[in-house]
Amino acid sequence: MSETKVIIAENIKKYIDTKGIKHNWIIERIGISKPTFYKLLKGEGNINQFEEKILKLFRLKDPFYFHRTDIDLPKSLAELNRPENFMDYVALSYHGEENLEFNKGMEVFREFVELIDVLHSVSSPVNEVLERELS
């Protein structure tokens, strides 16, 4: 097994873990069997064939994206959803003076948005169908 294959396999594995994507989803999308997919993640088999499909699946333009030892991974969902990121995003578009009152107000606003998101997911049509089936 070549060192390049190992680097590619490790980077693909890290990318998938960072994105929080289930293996079954990828297996279905690129048309690969489970054993072949897991061999790919170990650096075995014809990595180049499936690397192209994975690049296309994730819309990565750089054909050597997974070949680097210092790969620049995307932010995970947990990192994107951190409260500090919300405050940083708001601060970029706020042109007034940032003070304690502003920060408290934005914290309440963030919690309000999270509450709406939870209520929206609870009241979705899928949940209504499930409730009817359980009754």
TrEMBL record:
SUPFAM superfamilies: lambda repressor-like DNA-binding domains (SSF47413). Gene3D superfamilies: lambda repressor-like DNA-binding domains (1.10.260.40). InterPro entries: Lambda_DNA-bd_dom_sf. One of its GO terms (molecular function) is DNA binding. This is Uncharacterized protein. It comes from Bacillus benzoevorans.
